[in-house]
Every structure is written in structure tokens, then in C-alpha cells.
Design a protein that fits this description.
By secondary structure, the chain is mostly beta strands. The protein is built from no helices and 11 strands.
Amino acid sequence: QLQLEESGGGLVQTGGSLRLSCAASGRTYYTNIWGWFRQAPEKEREFVAAISWIGKTDYTRYAESVKGRFTISRVNGENMSYLQMDNLKPEDTAVYYCAASSRATTLPPNVAADFGLWGQGTQVTVSS
């Protein structure tokens, strides 16, 4: 069975950067949407960013709260997704989850229910 595993979380000061990675392993699975969500204590899981691709063209989507600060990317031909997080703020503190789906679309979904595979999460803590 395909599994997703996040890495790269940690503690960083306000204004700092982190790069999260998500690796897929296991049986072959056709994935063409990667997503990142986050969940802070006592809050609902929320959408952060997603990337889909058709052929060689990538399509990205971001939550308003992270636009201009976060960048989602993938490595063509590899089951890897990355989330570069710059200018981090204390309100970015959360457990970050990687997700994947196989639906072809030019508008990546921003709803958790549209993703069928999930990682276990990695903690990101931004100190003030």
C-alpha cells in the first residue's frame, strides 16, 4: 500500500524558513495532485497549498494566509512533494500534513475530502 511520509518540520524563529518534504513509498500509485494541510491545536484542519499537473504543466493553489510566503513544488518523475515556507509567523505553528490524489485537474482541490492519501504529519513551531 502506498504510504506518505513528511519530514523537515521543527522549531524556527519568526521570519525564518523551513522546507517540508513528502515522500511516497509502497506500491505504484498514479498521483497527480499533492496537497499540504495543517492543523493547529483546537482548530480544524485547514488547506495550505496544492499542486496538480497535466503533462509538463503544473497548476498551484494557495491559501490566502500563505500566499507569497509558501511555495509548493514537486519533482517530475519522482514521488516527492515539497513545501518551502519563508517568513514564518507564530500563527503558522501547526502539524503539517501531506496528502495525495490521482484526479487530473487544472484547479487543485483545497478540500481535505478530495485527497485519499495522507501522511502522519510533521510539527512546525514558530517562536515569537
